[in-house]
Amino acid sequence: MMKYLLFLLFLLLKAGTATAQNNLVVNGIPWFDDKGNIVNAHGACIVEENGRYYLFGEWKSDKSNAFPGFSCYSSDDLVNWKFENIVLRVQPEGILGPNRVGERVKVMKCPKTGEYIMLMHADDMEYKDPYIGLATCKTIAGDYQLQGPLLYKGQPVKRWDMGTFQDTDGKGYLLIHHGPVYRLSDDYRSIEAEVAHIKGMGESPAMFKKNGVYFMLTSNLTSWEKNDNFYFTAPQIEGPWTKQGLFCPEGKLTYNSQSTFVFPLKCGNDTIPMFMGDRWSYPHQAS
Ligand code: DGJ
């Protein structure tokens, strides 16, 4: 009888462990999608739609740093990911044509038009011809149509690392390395105004709001190498922005990552900022 009870206890504990593991997001190791492939989504962001999470990212290859497309996965628990689609493919020509760079894809749903707006960094292979690109779609998981460079006062924004932020009032923002914060027009298809310029910013901008305070995360400029990322805060998006220091222990190199996005994870009546960062492995970025 005792033996039987012990065996039962063992089975229960085992089942408990298995359940716990299946519900954990495990950091810093490959995740696998519903097809058994590595979740390949770098410089990513998450959009929540009808209780489902959509992860967009760079669909990296091990062979070359050239843009291979942007991927989209979906999940209802942030743990188990279904491959949805390559939502934007290599274009025949133009800013995301063959042998160009495509990075840091960010998607937002425009509240006014209901359209999905995708912004990204497009460049040449030497990072000497940067653009912020615009692609749009009527459905969340593609296929997105590349519209070309995003314009401000009729001109392309010739900058590289970018991020986006959607405020609770529905306004959309474009964040740019080394300082500029731009407010998008009502249809999110162009830039309306530069609303702030954060002195002392680095690369990989990622913004969130918590308890009425705006936070901006950023990395130092060290190419693909990890470093101690730092942050600023402000009472309003327009500023004044104050440098606060590191947000991970010094020397941990942001736990070997570089910021890309902060997802506002709804939790009851609260919103938990969920940090998302990349562990680069250039030139073998897929694996
Ligand atoms: C750092 C950026 O944050 C990355 O997105 C990428 O552009 C690399 N630089 C390229 O060196």
Number of helices: 2
Rg over alpha carbons? 20 Å
The CATH superfamily of the domain at 2-197 is known as Glycosyl hydrolase domain, family 43
- Beta-strand portion reads 35-45%
What is the total tally of β strands? Answer: 20
Terminal residue distance: 50 Å
CATH class of the domain at 2-197: Mainly Beta
Strand order, largest beta sheet: 1-2-3-4
The unique ligands bound to this protein are: (2R,3S,4R,5S)-2-(hydroxymethyl)piperidine-3,4,5-triol
Spatial shape: globular
Q: Largest sheet, if any?
A: 4 strands, antiparallel
Give the averaged pLDDT, no decimals: 93
The ordered H/E elements are: HEEEEEEEEEEEEEEEEEEHEE
CATH topology (level 3) name of the domain at 2-197: Tachylectin-2, Chain A
> What is the share of helical residues?
under 10%
CATH architecture of the domain at 2-197: 5 Propeller
Protein structure class: mainly beta
- Which segments are poorly predicted (pLDDT under 50) over 5 or more consecutive residues? 1-21
Describe this structure in words.
The chain is mostly beta strands. The chain has a domain at 2-197: Glycosyl hydrolase domain, family 43 (Tachylectin-2, Chain A, 5 Propeller). Helix content is 9%, strand content 45%. The chain contains 2 helices and 20 strands. The chain has a 4-stranded antiparallel β-sheet with strand order 1-2-3-4, with no helix packed on it. The longest helix has 21 residues, at 2-22. The termini are far apart. The model is unreliable at 1-21 (pLDDT under 50). Residues 43, 103-104, 161, 203-204, 223-224, 258 line the site of (2R,3S,4R,5S)-2-(hydroxymethyl)piperidine-3,4,5-triol.
